[in-house]
């Protein structure tokens, strides 16, 4: 087993919109995810096609209560501390701080909630790793401004970022700007609050919105470096190496094209749009409107590290027959890889792909990496005595952590690993509870029934030993 460096940040990762609940408590405003029910309408909304901003009475909205982390965070953090967490990745809900997004003054109750949350983490020496924007935009910004298609959101986001950076400068030393920024291309309402009208040029709107987020990200990096000089601030992408299905040069070129889709990270890490991105814009007749100073801002304020999620690899083909056999992985389309097994949700299970992905990111950017999401979504069935024996999860994580260690041996600089979701949470893609990731079981079903009682799974003690041994005991 490869050795992990001293001070490696072992822990777990959560998001406000999938855990907190209390969706209108403490002065919080309505966010985009609060409009996303479970069921067939969720996917339509996620892709930017929504006919009303009012929650419907006959729909179930899982974010409204989620797992009630807002009221139960002390209990949950105590359990994370028992596992020995060195770090916990969380996000701040923009609408808890600025309920409408464009407010002149922040909401003190929201600010105080995160003060209390970070204080509780610090009590156990758990390092907060904070995502500034994790898949929730204040609904008012969508209704009044068109969300990130509008340049004005850059100013609103900068105000929000400066507010929280200033408030928590003594409590938070690891920050990230946008969660899985490349998800904007696949789930534009989730990633950027984008809503499309019939006949609009959706691809033009997506890339213009992405540019606005990249400018906003650079401004947040600038603010962080000025306000908290000893902090580190990173970007974050949904990663996963794309393999060519065959050695046919057309398949290899297609796989390269898919991997280059994440060029947003090139902008955040290197400070400029790469040549192939500019060609993509030309070939697709896209015009990215920039203001004077944008290019200089992007160039001068690059991130300190690359955060990424890894759940599965992907496979690309140009053969029409092969393309008929599609699978999925974190909403990215992929043809089925005949050499890999899949999860209950059709995601390819590829531990070695984790090592390959980490190496490719390191080779490409030469900046420290932070694995901020990795895990297995599965249906956990409690035994008659209430215990949960999730050996399949242990097997998945053991193999992936082993390959992460191999990547470190390869020379990849990885500063930490926060597995996704250390406690069961609602799924971002489906809104389900039965798709569970946690070391801790939460008594709640897809319809919102249950006591919300927390129960340790078998993986709880396993991960505790992994952390205590700094990755030597798997």
TrEMBL record:
The keyword Nucleotide-binding does not apply. Coiled coil: none annotated. It comes from the Bacteria. Keywords: Glycosidase, Hydrolase. It holds the Pfam family Glyco_hydro_1. InterPro entries: GH, GH_1_N_CS, Glyco_hydro_1, Glyco_hydro_1_AS. The active site is at 373 (nucleophile). PANTHER family: 6-PHOSPHO-BETA-GLUCOSIDASE (PTHR10353:SF296), GLYCOSYL HYDROLASE (PTHR10353). Belongs to the glycosyl hydrolase 1 family. This is 6-phospho-beta-glucosidase. It comes from Tigheibacillus jepli.
């Amino acid at each position: 087993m490869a050795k992990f460096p001293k001070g490696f940040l072992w822990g777990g990762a959560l998001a406000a919109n999938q855990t907190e609940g209390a969706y209108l408590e403490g002065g919080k405003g309505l966010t985009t995810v609060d409009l996303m029910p479970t069921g067939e309408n969720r996917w339509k909304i996620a892709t930017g096609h929504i006919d009303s901003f009012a929650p419907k009475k006959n729909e179930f909205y899982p974010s409204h209560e989620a797992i009630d982390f807002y009221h139960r965070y002390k209990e949950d953090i105590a359990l994370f501390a028992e596992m020995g967490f060195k770090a916990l990745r969380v996000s701040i809900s923009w609408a808890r701080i600025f309920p409408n997004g464009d407010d002149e003054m922040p909401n003190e109750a929201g600010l105080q909630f995160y003060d209390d949350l970070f204080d509780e983490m610090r009590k156990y020496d758990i390092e907060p790793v904070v995502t500034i924007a994790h898949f929730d935009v204040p609904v008012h910004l969508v209704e009044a401004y068109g969300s990130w298609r509008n340049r004005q959101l850059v100013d609103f986001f900068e105000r929000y970022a400066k507010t929280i950076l200033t408030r928590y400068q003594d409590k938070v030393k690891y920050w990230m700007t946008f969660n899985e920024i490349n998800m904007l291309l696949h789930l534009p309402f989730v990633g950027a609050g984008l809503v499309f009208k019939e006949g609009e040029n959706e691809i033009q709107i997506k890339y213009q919105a992405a540019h606005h987020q990249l400018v906003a990200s650079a401004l947040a990096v600038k603010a962080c470096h000025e306000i908290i000089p000893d902090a580190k601030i990173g970007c974050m992408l949904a990663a996963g190496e794309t393999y060519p299905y065959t050695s046919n040069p057309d398949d290899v070129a297609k796989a390269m094209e898919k991997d280059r889709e994440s060029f947003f990270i090139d902008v955040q890490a290197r400070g400029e749009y790469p040549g192939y991105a500019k060609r993509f814009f030309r070939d697709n007749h896209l015009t990215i409107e920039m203001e004077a100073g944008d290019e200089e801002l992007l160039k001068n304020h690059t991130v300190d590290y690359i955060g990424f999620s890894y759940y599965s690899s992907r496979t690309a083909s140009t053969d029409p027959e092969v393309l008929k056999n599609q699978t999925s992985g974190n909403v990215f389309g992929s043809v089925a890889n005949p050499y890999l097994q899949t999860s209950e949700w059709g995601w390819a299970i590829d531990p070695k792909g984790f090592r390959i992905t980490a190496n490719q990111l390191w080779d490409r950017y030469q900046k420290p990496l932070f694995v901020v999401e990795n895990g297995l979504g599965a249906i956990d069935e409690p035994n008659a005595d209430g215990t949960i024996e999730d050996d399949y999860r242990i097997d998945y994580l053991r193999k992936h952590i082993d390959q992460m260690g191999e990547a470190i041996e390869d020379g990849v600089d990885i500063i930490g690993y926060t597995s996704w979701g250390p406690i069961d949470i609602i799924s971002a893609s489906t809104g389900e509870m039965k798709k569970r990731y946690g070391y801790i079981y939460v008594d709640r079903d897809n319809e919102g029934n249950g006591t919300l009682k927390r129960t340790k799974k078998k993986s709880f003690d396993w991960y505790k030993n992994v952390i205590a041994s700094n990755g030597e005991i798997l």
